[in-house]
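Slide 14.
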Amino acid sequence: MKNNTILKIGIIGILIFVILASGCISSFNTGTRTFSDGVMSFNYPTDFDNATTSDINSTKMQEVSFFKKDSLFGSLFNKQYIYVARNKTGLSSAEARDGTVSKVKNASTGQLLSSTTETNPNGVVVEKISFVEEEFGKKAWHCMMYFKIKDTVYGIVVYGPYSNREKITSTANIIFQSIK
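Slide 15: predicted structure.
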């Protein structure tokens, strides 16, 4: 009798672990935070951490912020990133989008899925791109947005493993709806 109870508890524990690891219960925290650089702002899920990275300061783009989301199990499940940059040239958001579309189409490892122009609920015109890219033998899902606020063109990309595409798309939608 005692061994049956221990066996049942062990089986239940394994089932709970499998459910958590499979992503069926990805996060208990479903709220949002707001990021602002003083010019523009957007909301993002609270389970992202603002990561410390080296400042990427190319001639065209300057990093504004970088966020990452790791699950309880690290790189195995639920990994996502949000990268925010601003354009340092006179490039418009449509030109920035077109440049990215061209790079994806010309890359042997990329596949463009969509390219649209949409206006969010705050009246911000956003150039949206979705594409898949193979990196180091693994597919990555990208949702990219370019937009202009107060004469500054921004680029935001939400990306991560292809297997996590629904959650990446959901995060990108939260950001798109709240950009102002």
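Speaker note: The domain at 30-178 is CATH 3.40.1000.10 (Protein Transport Mog1p; Chain A).
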